């Protein structure tokens, strides 16, 4: 589904690579967790994938289409939830979701059925015609999720999606991720919440200082590092100067 | 008191100090400032020349105090006209108000500290008018064989600081009822911004137009007319007249006492009003502006084409941001208002005996200049087309549309705004101008043809170096070098057309022939602007757009 190959990105005013030679693949039906400490390069990778940031080298291919060659086709198949509830906050929630639906060319019936279902799940029906600027962080996050799923994307990208969500909404979001991949779609998300990653993900990647330290199936990780929790494992990997001892893939 | 000074010091730095990320930005700022001074040097020289001639006559007619008073009054009117919008921005629409309200500072201290910021903000306007006028009058006085006393020169710095304070205090008191109405429409930011702009321009016109009407009947050449008008206007605003009398040495202590007493009373009224209303007004402004589901019927969802959806998103984003909407409405309303005033001014410009004079051409030149400047150089739809999105700009990059489509949506909205402004100005021009009908029609076409290519230029500049991390509208409007250059282009182009119109109005020629030459030159400017700013620039814009990092 998604192949990122040798992705490197250096910011215009920096000498250091924010992301260097990052390579991994997200397969159909997978929930892929992208882990790393603060400033590791997670958001930069996601922003490159979303076309927000231009990158220096490497390639991003979704469903056989290269982002640099055919950005529209790639973006048409992605739904994105940013880490800072990035949305047009001067619009009402309805206007925002309708705008996203218009951009992704979603028909009236499809958008209505999808949005109604999500609104009911998130209990947002009463505020759907209110200005987003009056919403709490959690409410903005939920509207962002609805806007990202309105076109039923093949790849759902979420940057720190669980921050600011109440337990019920966090649960719903996790269920939505599982449901999304059941239809041969994929979910790619970054998170600090290791217990969530542990429960939801089929595969994880750990990035630190712009370099990918490991990519592994969750099952394999459990087999090879059974004595460690994901948290302990994450800390051992990101604190180590060299590659982890455990052999993966 | 400590908090007040700390706050004032911080506010002065926050609002007025130019900030540079690197030495290159600083160099650009200095170069732009020099260009700005050079561009304004020409109208300033014209102003000084006219003042010198009029001052010489005023000395002969023994109305020096009236003349000085009028110069001071002109700076006060300029502050009223240009300072109102920035005052409202600083006092009420700043993003810092919510933070300031949580600080252990009295509302009157916030009010006073922001009043000082506004005063400093307007000092440049008053200085540009007062200083050259006062110096020119002194030179004329010496050339006529007289000399002013020391009080004239000693009072100059006091004039620079205290003369703009009075109009600011008037603005301050008037702003409370304006904001009361605005906060009533808080849930409808578009209506609120429109009302603010209408009231702002309406109040200034109400103060300004009667003073202009006072000088309408005077005969003679331009300088003579000016002196006649001045002698009537001189006493229009009593405290200012008192200050002028003190400057020429007439009952210095008494006149200064009157001036400062009135200023102090105005300040006291301002502070007292702020104690009563400022906090409550700020609180109301900080309340959420959402539209509740009970107030607005839910619209049925109607899919839009990509292009329409993008344009509508841009429009909604602009109209629901109080600051940007206000700037846009100010441009739409100020352009016809300035045109109205310029036409009044034209009426006061009669020819010398034996000279031919075509008032229609004169009006055309003046009006074209104002429209050019206001519409071409102040269209916030294009000037900050990218910057206004702030971090939300990232969303556009994630959409399945091309960069070109996004830029075209921004340009379409800019062009529609330009068209609306031109139509409004054209309607006012058609109503008040004495030029033939064909000039009124060509005026709309000409102004639009010259100003719409500037949208491309403005957007190109913003795409090239957007500021996506602003917190205050001033950071991307007045303190932004990116917006300054298009304004300079408009000033230069506008002055060229104005000089053409004024020069032609004195030529012994049929009006249709004058019009033909005038519109011929305008057509050349429009075509030149199109090729310089528009033609095949989209590819370059897309390239810059794709390179933006956030």
Describe the structure.
- The complex is a heterodimer of chains A (249) and B (550).
- Chain A is an alpha/beta fold and 249 residues long.
- Chain A has helices spanning 42-49, 71-76, 93-103, 108-122, 137-149, 167-182, 194-200, 218-224, 230-239, and strands spanning 2-10, 17-26, 31-35, 57-62, 65-66, 78-81, 155-159, 186-190, 203-208, 211-217.
- In chain A, the strands form 2 sheets. Chain A has a 6-stranded mixed beta sheet, sandwiched between helices.
- The longest helix of chain B has 38 residues, at 23-60.
- Chain B starts with a helix and ends with a helix.
- With 550 residues, chain B is mainly alpha-helical.
- Chain B is globular and about 75 Å long.
- Chain B folds into 2 domains: 37-291, no CATH class; 306-550, no CATH class.
- The relative contact order of chain B is 0.10.
- The A-B interface holds A 11-12, 47, 50-54, 71-73, 75-76, 78, 80, 82, 84, 86-92, 94-95, 98-99, 101-108, 111-112, 126-131, 133-134 and B 288-293, 296, 298-299, 301-306, 309-310, 312-313, 316-317, 320-321, 391-392, 394-395, 397-402, 546-547, 549-550.
């Amino acid at each position: 589904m998604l192949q990122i190959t040798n992705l490197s990105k250096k910011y215009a005013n920096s000498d250091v690579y924010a992301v260097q030679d990052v390579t991994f693949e997200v397969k159909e039906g997978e929930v892929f967790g992208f882990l790393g400490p603060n400033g590791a390069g997670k958001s930069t990778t996601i922003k490159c994938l979303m076309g927000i940031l231009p990158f220096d080298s490497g390639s991003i291919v979704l469903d056989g289409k290269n982002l640099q060659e055919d950005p529209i086709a790639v973006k048409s198949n992605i739904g994105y939830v940013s880490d800072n509830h990035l949305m047009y906050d001067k619009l009402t929630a309805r206007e925002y979701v309708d705008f996203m639906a218009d951009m992704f060319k979603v028909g009236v019936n499809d958008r209505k059925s999808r949005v109604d279902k999500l609104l009911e799940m998130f209990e947002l029906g009463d505020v759907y015609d209110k200005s987003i600027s009056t919403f709490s962080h959690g409410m903005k996050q939920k509207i962002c999720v609805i806007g990202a799923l309105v076109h039923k994307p093949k790849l759902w990208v979420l940057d720190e999606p669980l921050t600011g969500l109440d337990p019920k909404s966090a649960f719903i979001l996790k269920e939505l991720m599982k449901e999304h991949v059941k239809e041969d779609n994929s979910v790619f998300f970054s998170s600090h919440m290791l217990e969530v990653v542990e429960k939801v993900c089929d595969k994880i990647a750990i990035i630190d200082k712009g370099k990918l330290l490991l990519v592994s199936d969750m099952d394999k990780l459990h087999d090879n590092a059974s004595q460690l929790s994901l948290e302990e494992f994450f800390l051992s990997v990101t604190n180590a100067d060299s590659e982890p001892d455990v052999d993966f893939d | 008191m400590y908090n007040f000074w700390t706050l004032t010091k911080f506010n002065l730095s926050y609002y007025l100090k130019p900030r540079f990320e690197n030495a290159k930005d600083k160099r650009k700022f200095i170069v732009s400032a020099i260009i700005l001074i050079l561009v304004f040097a020409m109208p300033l020289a014209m102003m000084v020349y006219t003042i010198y001639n009029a001052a010489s006559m005023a000395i002969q007619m023994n109305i020096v105090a009236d003349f000085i008073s009028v110069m001071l009054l002109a700076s006060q009117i300029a502050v009223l006209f240009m300072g109102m919008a920035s005052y409202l921005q600083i006092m009420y629409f700043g993003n810092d108000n919510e933070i300031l309200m949580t600080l252990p500072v009295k509302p009157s201290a916030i009010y006073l500290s922001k009043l000082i910021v506004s005063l400093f903000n307007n000092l440049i306007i008053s200085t540009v008018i007062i200083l050259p006028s006062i110096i020119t009058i002194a030179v004329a006085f010496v050339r006529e064989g007289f000399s002013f006393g020391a009080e004239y020169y000693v009072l100059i710095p006091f004039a620079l600081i205290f003369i703009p304070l009075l109009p600011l205090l008037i603005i301050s008191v008037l702003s409370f009822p304006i904001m009361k109405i605005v906060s009533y429409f808080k849930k409808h930011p578009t209506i609120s911004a429109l009302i603010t702009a209408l009231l702002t321009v309406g109040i200034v016109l109400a103060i300004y137009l009667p003073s202009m009407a006072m000088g309408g009947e005077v005969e003679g050449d331009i300088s003579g007319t000016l002196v006649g008008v001045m002698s009537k206007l001189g006493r229009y605003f009593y405290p200012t007249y008192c200050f002028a009398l003190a400057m020429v040495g007439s009952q210095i202590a008494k006149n200064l006492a009157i001036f400062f007493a009135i200023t102090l009373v105005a300040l006291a009224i301002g502070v007292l009003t702020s104690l009563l209303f400022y906090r409550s007004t700020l609180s109301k402004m900080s309340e959420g502006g959402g539209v509740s589901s009970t107030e607005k019927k839910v619209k049925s969802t109607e899919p839009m084409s990509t292009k329409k959806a993008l344009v509508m998103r841009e429009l909604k984003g602009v109209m629901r941001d109080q600051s940007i909407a206000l700037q846009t409405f100010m441009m739409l309303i100020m352009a016809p208002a300035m045109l109205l005033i310029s036409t009044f001014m034209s009426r006061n410009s009669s020819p010398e005996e034996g000279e031919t004079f075509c008032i229609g051409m004169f009006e055309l030149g003046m009006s074209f200049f104002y429209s050019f400047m206001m519409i071409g150089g102040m269209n916030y739809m294009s000037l900050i087309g990218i910057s206004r999105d702030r971090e939300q700009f990232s969303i556009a990059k994630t959409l399945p549309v091309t960069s070109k489509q996004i830029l075209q949506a921004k340009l379409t909205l800019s062009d529609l705004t330009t068209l609306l402004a031109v139509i409004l100005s054209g309607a006012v021009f058609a109503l008040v101008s004495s030029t033939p009908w064909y000039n009124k029609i060509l005026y709309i076409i000409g102004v639009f043809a010259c100003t719409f290519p500037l949208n491309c230029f403005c957007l190109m500049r913003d795409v090239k170096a957007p500021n996506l991390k602003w917190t205050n509208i001033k950071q991307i409007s007045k303190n932004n070098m990116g917006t300054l250059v298009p304004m300079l282009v408009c000033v230069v182009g506008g002055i060229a057309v104005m000089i053409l119109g004024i020069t032609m109005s004195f030529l012994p020629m049929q009006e249709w022939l004058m019009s033909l030459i005038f519109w011929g030159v305008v057509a050349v400017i429009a075509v030149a602007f199109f090729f310089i700013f528009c033609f095949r620039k989209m590819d370059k814009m897309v390239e810059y757009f794709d390179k933006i990092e956030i």
